[in-house]
User: Fold this.
Amino acid sequence: MSTYDLHIIKRLVRTYVLLVLGLIVFFIVLHYVEYVDDFLDRGATMSQVFLEYYPNYVPEIVRLMSPLALFLATVYLTARLTQRMELGSLQTSGVSLYRFMLPYVVVGAFVTGFMVWFNGWVVPETNRVVIRFEQDYMRDSDARPEVGNINRQEGPGSLLSVQYYDLNSQTATSPSLFQLSEERHLLRRVDAQRMTWSDSTGSWLMSDVTVRTFDEDGTEVRRHLVSIDTTLSIRPRDLARSERDVEMMTVPEAREHIETLRRTGATRLGRPLVAFHSKYAYPFANLILVLVGVPLAAVRRRGGQAMQMGIGLFVAFVYLLVMKLIEPFGYSGLIAPVVAAWAPHVVFFVGGFIFLLRVRK
Assistant:
């Protein structure tokens, strides 16, 4: 790698970091202006908002804004070199556009790899704080919990299923607790009429209980109990279901969660599956937009650098719009969730590759 390549990498990374920081500030300001009434009406203090909520929101903003920031940095730097005739001089001296793209691809690949790890293991940890805060202090948030057909991982090989959960009385209707072996065979099932949380004991009280135990040969032993106390690790706050559950899970946790839901026959898996596959798919937008941005800005246009940036913003907007338009089809099952997560990236990768082939080298 030449000195010029290192120079391009340095300038690209510096521009990318500055854009990410700028987008973080811009996003937080807009978000606060939109939700400040909710914060005040629901009693959130300024220290909670600015020392707890937004610091934990920053990783999610970085995850969302990284492809846009890297794309704009790519377009800005390439357009600047194009307008100054530096790119033309390089091509005249025998440097092809493919060779010129090498430092961009290196940065794009590094950011993509970093964001796969960041999106899969770091962001979920901070999202837990963010989503719980939104449940408490923001109206009409998609973090609002659902109260019906709830499935929760209780522990290794254990799953709790609830037909309905009343948030006010902290009472679950028709709870079922499944215990699975390491080979994923059902060992024990506990069904109850209701399950109520007791603050004094810090445990759940199950009423009108049926316990079924299954031997290796499939023999079932059944017994009925009036009530039992259970020491589940799940708490009332954990039981309320949110559409954003997978966002609070690392990749291994999300994979285990979805596999458990499948084994227990849970329905409506479209949304968690799309969210799971997006943990891998979305970071690739960083590399794909770099591959689109270089040839896009390598062509001199009337209007100069401003026109290049305008076209870049339009392309990025279309990219993000296509992702948001396709996701609901994956939620509903009209298309496979993995297709909903990956299709926009594949389409833009192919489009960018075709555009690259047609640009003067």
Remarks:
- The first helix runs from residue 3 to 41.
